[in-house]
Specification:
Oligomer: single chain
Distance between the termini: 33 Å
Order of helices and strands: EEEEHEHEHEHHEHEHEHEH
Shape: globular
Length: 373
């Protein structure tokens, strides 16, 4: 998920028999997993992403969560920087205001991870040999871990399990569950003074020794010898599958702990595949929240409907819900009204707003009004 730097603090193979009931604002809004893991949803759902700082008082969180509940939100995705104690502290406050709680965590991108920082070899390496440990691409907080290396994978899955064990949460929410951007959204290119018309070596990951050796053992060729890695489909598929393996393991972990697995993803599968090596329509996951942030792509509001429909179509036959992610900054109240309509009219199960503190009073009025029959 690409986010502007100033928004950083704000901004998952098997399961045979399981019955989970997640508390929501209204009885009709309950999400369940049936015995065959089918996700069922009876009403259009409203979410928001928020980031929680542990220095804040319970009273300040209570005030914020009351605002969300009073304005008709059903769920909040909370980034606690992987802190299960803070998450456990916030669950009863949120439930007081009839809000479902989801544990949101940066997954493959791990800025500020003190454990990972003790292991420079865990970090993804670009085609031109630069490690995210000391030479991150684009921005300083792009600290991507290698999804192939056993130690980095186990570290990530351990963090997921810690949060999944927190009582009262509805799901664990994967964010940055991908590789670093091989292509940035077109609307962000001027910010970095970039032109990206081909897969550039400095943005192409991961070429660490573990990735290339495992690929060579399987396919009898080394990615470092490719004159044009972009056209080697086995190499691309190898990386797509490495992300999928982590998602599938996360699904197992969350379900064993009686929780759902949700994920923030790029706008629709083909686009995610092209831009960040992420093919989310093939994942085992209960719900996806594609970040259909039209402003990042220089697109108009109706593109939200287009991208939503693409994702819904690609998920047909899978037990995965789709809830459209909407970027509210720079969006007028009328545009937000249209965005919600576009998502709902094109098959979304709900909408999530990035992020809670950025929603204006005029936008809250639209959100409340859109819940009326």
């Amino acid at each position: 998920m690409i986010k502007l730097t100033k928004f950083l603090p704000f901004l998952a193979l098997f399961i045979f028999t399981l019955n989970i009931s997640c508390e929501t604002k209204k009885e009709t809004a309950t999400t369940t997993i049936s015995k065959n893991s089918e996700v069922k949803k009876d009403t259009f759902k409203f979410w928001t992403w928020i980031t929680a700082e542990k220095t804040r008082t319970d009273a300040s969180f209570d005030e914020e969560f009351k605002k969300y509940g009073d304005n008709g939100l059903d769920a909040i995705l909370i980034n606690t920087y992987g802190d299960p104690e803070l998450l456990a502290r916030l669950v009863p406050i949120a439930k007081k205001h009839n809000l479902e709680v989801h544990a949101w965590m940066f997954t493959m991108n791990r800025p500020g991870d003190k454990v990972a920082e003790q292991h420079p070899e865990w970090y993804a390496v670009s085609r031109d040999g630069k490690s995210c440990f000391d030479e991150p691409p684009y921005v300083g907080y792009y600290k991507w871990l290698c999804p192939t290396r056993k130690e980095s994978r186990e570290h990530i899955l351990g963090l997921i399990e810690r949060l999944a064990k927190v009582e009262g949460i509805a799901s664990f929410h994967l964010d940055y569950i991908r590789y670093s951007d091989i292509f940035l959204p077109i609307g962000l290119l001027p910010k970095y003074d970039l032109k990206q018309e081909t897969e550039l070596p400095e943005y192409d990951f991961c070429y660490c020794d573990v990735c290339t050796a495992e690929f060579e053992k399987e396919h009898h060729k080394n990615p470092n010898d490719f004159s044009n890695p972009a056209i080697d489909l086995e190499w691309k598929n190898f990386r797509l599958n490495k992300v999928k393996e982590i998602v599938d393991q996360a699904y197992k972990i969350t379900h064993e702990n009686g929780k759902l697995l949700t994920a923030a993803v790029f706008p629709y599968p083909e686009m995610a595949d092209h831009m960040v090596r992420q093919r989310w329509d093939k994942w085992q996951v209960d719900a996806v929240l594609p970040m259909i942030y039209n402003v990042f792509y220089n697109e108009e509001i109706d593109w939200i409907g287009y991208a939503t429909k693409q994702g819904v179509e690609d998920l047909k036959g899978r037990n995965t819900e789709l809830h459209t992610g909407i970027y509210v900054p720079e969006m007028t109240a009328e545009q937000l009204k249209e965005a919600i309509y576009q998502a709902k009219n094109n098959g979304a199960n709900g909408v999530s707003f990035f992020d809670g503190p950025a929603i204006t009073e005029q936008q809250w009025q639209v959100i409340k009004a859109s819940q009326k029959p």
